[in-house]
Amino acid sequence: MTPLPRRDVLALLLATTALPLAAQPAPPKRPGRLMIIGGAEDRKQDSVILKRFMALSGGVNARLKFITAASGVPDATWQSYQAAFEALGATQTAQVAIASRDDAFLPDIEQQLLEADGIFMTGGDQNRLMACLWESPAARAIHRAFHLNGSCIAGTSAGAAVMSRQMLAQGTATPVPEKDIVSMDIGLGLLSSAIVDQHFSQRQRLGRLLSALAQRPDMLGVGIDENTALIIERGQAVEVVGQGAVTLIDGRKMHSNFDDVATEEKLEMLGLQLHLLPAGHRYVVPANLKQSKKQPSALWEAFQLLVTPSPLRS
Fold first, then answer.
1. Neighbour-count burial of 20, counting CB atoms closer than 10 A to its CB (0-12 exposed, 13-18 middle, 19+ buried)
2. Residue 303 burial (CB < 10 Å; 0-12/13-18/19+)?
3. Residues 6+ apart with CB under 8 A from 198
């Protein structure tokens, strides 16, 4: 398996993968949606999140494709999701057979993804998943499905982590943020201005996400609880469904001592903005943020980062 490039060469690669702003395509008639799930979603009882993914993809007859490459037991993972969605009435479900990086370059795999109404990336290890997808035709097909076809792209746990361009690759959950206890790598880039962490409240990962934001204060931190999903409607709205909450942390105006302390020392982070979005709430982002008085302006600015389309990588 080809290892991922390290950060010292990523800047050069990124400069060649995003289309110039003037070359960005017009949005599809059906706006693409991202469904970012915090892991451990219910598959046997109410299955609220799975039902919503199917609905966003077009209903029971939608063509649903499942990428299980993050899992250490991909076939067992696929069988679990196949049974869950068939129980909900889905008629067209299929596993996309990506088990290696070579698979992600096969024309048939690319075509399967381009034909999908909904693409679901399962949990496991986000580094394993990106080792397969990195700069591949399959990854570009996911972008085209979202940007050009209006497909719903969902990811749970590891599949959620890879949604962002700056991906939280690994790191210890600590009570308070510390310098350099997390490592970052490059994800799919469907979210260009955020870092996603999952299993958030259940695994007490606030300190971990803050440690990541100390490295990248220009990013928005997104922490998603288990059995909870953040739905991002391209250019329009943000919604939270499930049983938990989504935590947004905006550090763009903060002051920290990151550059002044040694590795694993405690971090001072001043001026952070934190927003807690419980399940059951939907927020329509106004066209003119200055004219909206219903919510704090800082919240609308955070939402704007989420709903602004990422570059099409092709």
1. exposed
2. buried
3. 37, 38, 39, 156, 157, 158, 160, 161, 223, 224, 226
Catalytic residue (choose from 57, 136, 151, 157): 157
For residue 270, what are the CA distances in angstroms to 183, 250, 313? 22, 11, 35
In this predicted structure, what is the pLDDT of residue 8? Answer: 41
275 is catalytic: no
* Catalytic-residue membership of 226: yes
Q: Estimate to the nearest angstrom the gap between the alpha carbon of 214 and the chain centroid.
A: 20
Task: Say whether 132 sits in a helix, a strand or coil.
Answer: helix
CA dihedral 32, 274, 241, 58 (to 10 degrees): 0
Q: In the structure, what pLDDT confidence band is assigned to residue 258 with cuts at 50, 70 and 90?
A: very high
Q: What is the DSSP string of 196-227?
A: EE-STTTTT-HHHHHHHHHH-TTSEEEEE-TT
**Does the structure show a pLDDT above 70 at 10?**
no
What's the pLDDT band for 29 if we cut at 50, 70, 90? low
Lookup result for tokens 């993972």: 77
Structure tokens at 217: 């204060």
- Does 115 qualify as catalytic in the annotation? no
What dihedral angle (degrees, nearest 10) is formed by the CA atoms of 181, 216, 126, 249? 100
Euclidean distance between CA atoms 41 and 39, whole angstroms? 5
pTM for the model: 0.90
Task: Give 219-253 pLDDT, tens digit per residue.
Answer: 999 999 999 999 999 999 999 999 999 999 999 99
DSSP label at residue 119: E
The active-site residue, picked from 41, 110, 178, 226, is 226
Q: Would you say how long the chain is, in residues?
A: 314
280-292 burial by CB neighbour count: b if 16+ within 10 A, else e?
eeebebeeeeeee
Exactly one of 136, 143, 151, 199 is catalytic; name it. 199
301: phi then psi, degrees, rounded to nearest 5: -65, -40
